Amino acid sequence: MIHIASHSLVTTIQDLGRVGYQKYGINVSGAMDPLSLRAANLLVGNEEGAGAIEMTLIGPDMTFEEDTLLALTGADLSPNIKGIPVPMYRPVAVKAGTVLSFGRPRLGVRGYMAVAGGFTVPSVMGSESNYARAGIGGFEGRPIRAGDSVPTGEPSSKVKKYMKSLLKGKNFGWPSWFAGNFYMNEKSLREPVRYTEGLQYDYFTEKSHQLLNEGHYIVTANSDRMGYRLSGPKLGLTSPLEMISEMCALGTIQVPPEGNPIILMAEHQSCAGYPEIGQAALVDIGRIAQKGPKDTICFKKISREEAEDEFIFMEKKMREIREGISYRTGWGE
Known about the structure:
- The protein is of the alpha+beta class.
- Helices cover 21% and strands 23% of the residues.
- The chain has helices at residues 34-43, 157-167, 177-180, 186-190, 206-214, 285-289, 304-329, and strands spanning 2-4, 10-14, 52-56, 62-64, 68-76, 80-81, 84-85, 92-94, 99-100, 107-115, 149-150, 193-197, 217-219, 227-231, 246-247, 252-254, 262-264, 271-272, 276-280, 296-297, 299-301.
- The chain has an eight-stranded mixed β-sheet with strand order 20-13-14-17-16-19-12-21. Strands 2-3-10-5-8 form a five-stranded antiparallel β-sheet. Strands 9-4-1-11 form a four-stranded antiparallel β-sheet, with no helix packed on it.
- The two termini are 29 Å apart.
């Protein structure tokens, strides 16, 4: 068990989502930053898509009932134990009774914590992800709050052995290169969000195309897990367009009548009725998710071929990370 001792902003259990049910109107949900979730799970010997805790801006104080191997990735929310900083992007073993706390966010807004063995919560339609609006998945179908005791699973024997070695003070020389393989740094988070042409791209004016590529947009306080509402240069159509609702996807950039774009995120709807000017590249979804209110987003148009190449490169990098972790821990032997 992990006992939650304090309130937080939004803390939920998420995995890689509820895939295959959008035709019934069931949102995919899942981690807002899938790469960070995958990395956290790899670091503790779980399957990449296992459920982990997603924290937004403020993490709760939590007490571990038994010895636990955990990993923290994504946003740096100032994790600490009795004021001593806890390293990120590496396996960390904590003893029973340890209290993990969080402070002010230093970089990014969404942090992830995976524990060896995962969490023993019900799977709903093949996913542990919490979709709070529908009251399904995660811990009791809702966000985690103070007073909850979240059950954890059983790690493998190899992971247990590794954890015990860490608790005895053995140093395995965990490499610093791991964090460098991710985009959680100030430079990367400032880079433009790459996008390809949306279904109605040609219906927008040339001026709108230019504004989207050259303008700067602010993430508004109305943004959530469903979509990021932006404020900035207004985008417009060449002429009024009567649309029938059509499919949309993670990363779709749609533009309502007032002209401010919306980027659809993890809990996006199945269909959209606003024109779609672009489609954010999948490799940049995590970087978008690490933006908070008042942060700036700018865009860069790329071809579909370039987006595919970036996705393939990302997956190759994840494979290298997976193999590197397996080599250093011995879990894959």
